[in-house]
Design brief:
With 259 residues, the chain is α/β, with parallel strands linked by helices. It folds into 2 domains: 169 residues, Molybdenum Cofactor Biosythetic Enzyme, Chain A (3-Layer(aba) Sandwich); 84 residues, Alpha-Beta Plaits (2-Layer Sandwich). 43% of the residues lie in helices and 29% in strands. The strands form 3 sheets. It has a 6-stranded mixed beta sheet, sandwiched between helices. The protein has a 4-stranded antiparallel beta sheet with strand order 10-11-9-12. The chain starts with a strand and ends with a strand. 33% of the residues are buried.
Length: 259
């Protein structure tokens, strides 16, 4: 799989700010078996952004893009580029409002509503370190991955969501784990278990399901990776996180699960 990285920001070209995220992104993508063909830095001008996209899509089918001419205004550009309309996401708006308040960032509803508009068909990735989300837009044979401006937000969304997305695109290996819970976990009920597991329930790779097998609740973990061994490592690490969240007093047994 080949991809380009486009970083938007006049402040980088003029030297006002150092650009320090593309090396991280390219390195992580290489680890995920994504061949980064080139890294392009362009100014915050619509015609330059369109030209960069045109140039990239001549050679690759996936572009990962960061920064921009005001994150909300970018969505109009990208929607128009792919012939899409914008839609307003109530879920994204609610999450951003909650995160902004938690972070002490002063944003009025009008500003947040602008940030909660996305091109039709976009898969939105919530930001749990900041508040501005990322998203993936697939249109025909072209894929656009859009990440926010701040490096901390970029890394958080990339690790939480984009890693899993790339695994699904390039992976051939898979693995499963099963965590069998005991009576103490039974007392928590489904709601209590979901509350204890927190954000792990939202993970896409590995994915997590809670099922009832015979008389026990069971956490079923599914992971994909470049090889079966990589997927198993990922599943085991995720299982450890689950056990830590629940506490050893709720665990009856842990074992591999066939897929």
């Amino acid at each position: 799989m080949k991809a380009d990285i486009i970083c938007i920001g006049t402040e980088y070209i003029t030297g006002m700010l150092p650009e320090n995220t593309t090396n991280y992104l390219a390195g992580r993508m290489a680890e995920l078996d994504v061949n980064v063909r080139r890294i392009v830095i362009v100014g915050s001008y619509e015609e330059e952004i369109r030209k960069a996209l045109d140039d990239s899509y001549q050679d690759v089918d996936t572009v990962l893009l960061t920064g921009g001419i005001g994150y909300g205004r970018n969505q109009n550009l990208f929607a128009d580029y792919f012939g899409k309309k914008l839609f307003f996401s109530e879920d994204a708006f609610a999450h951003m409002k909650k995160q902004a308040e938690k972070s002490g960032v002063r944003m009025d509803d009008t500003q947040l509503k602008d940030l909660a508009e996305f091109p039709e068909g976009a898969t939105i990735f919530d930001n749990y370190d900041g508040y501005v989300p990322g998203y993936v837009l697939e249109s025909g044979k072209k894929t656009l991955i859009v990440l926010p401006f701040l490096s901390t937000d970029i890394k958080a969304i990339f690790e939480d969501d984009i890693v899993g997305y790339f695994y699904k695109r390039v992976s051939i290996g898979n693995a499963g784990m099963k965590i069998i819970l005991n009576e103490k976990a039974e007392e928590k009920g489904i709601r209590g278990l979901l509350s204890s597991l927190g954000d792990l329930c939202k993970s896409e790779n590995p994915s997590l399901d809670i099922v009832k097998e015979e008389n026990n609740y069971v956490l079923k973990i599914r992971a994909v990776g470049p090889t079966n061994g990589d997927a198993m490592i990922l599943a085991n690490l995720f299982a450890s996180d689950c056990c830590q969240k629940l506490g050893s007093e709720c665990i009856l047994n842990i074992k591999e699960d066939t897929i």
